[in-house]
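Record type: monomer structure entry
Structure origin: computed from sequence
Chain ID: A
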Amino acid sequence: MITFPNAKINLGLNVVERRPDGYHNLETVFYPIPLQDILEVTTFDEVAEHEDPTNTDVVLHTGGIVIAGGVEDNLVVKAYRLLKAEFDLSPVHIHIFKHIPSGAGLGGGSADATYMLRLLREKFSLPLTDDELEERAARLGADCAFFVRNTPAFATGIGNIFTPLPDFSLKGYCILLVKPDIFVSTRDAFALIRPHKPERPLTEIITLPVNQWREAGMCNDFEESVFAKYPAIGEIKDKIYHLGAEYAAMSGSGSSLFGLFKKNNIADDTSLREIFPNCFCWQGLLEV
């Protein structure tokens, strides 16, 4: 059985207050985008040659962008273990082909983990509702539960409380993603943040035309500190606007940036590589 976990972007990201537990309360809009990994699961008895299930219950195969860490550190394996502790799951081969860059603020690892839960529910006919699957996904990571329903949502708390936005859509817009080869530490990004309440709520700003978002105050609070430390990331945002984006921003606390365009063809791949050297670039049409 095969599935295609997709990435998400953050439309605005406000760090509103520091919590007593040391974490921060956020306000942001999670929006799914059609940049996808490939995830496949087969049971041991579905393949002709396999490792002896008495020695292991999970064999992980990876391809595409390199995934850091060992097998037991992988969120997809953790998702399997989570449900195996509750249900009688057969040993499996897991195949992941990564297209979504890691550490980019795009939720790729979280999407893979949650899609694994969804796939296992279907493959083994597990008696789990979406609400119950969300509860289990939340154990794997703050934003994992978003990918159960995978529709636009206003996120609060530490990015783990979701309010659906059924009337909000960017369908038909073209998105450009650019991720430079720069690692941004989430810990460092938070350390330099000055929490504050936004002057205008995101839920109000997204009702405006996209080309008015910037003037209305939509922003990613991490940009101020990240751009100061890594000016090259800020320069990428400027270049995205120069290409004609109606809105551009950094996604999450990672180093990736996105631009929203009304035109379908932003630039050909060769031109993008020249404009953004040594960067991962991807463009696609929003479908939600």
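Annotation 1: The domain at 2-164 is CATH 3.30.230.10 (Ribosomal Protein S5; domain 2).
Annotation 2: The longest strand covers residues 6-18.
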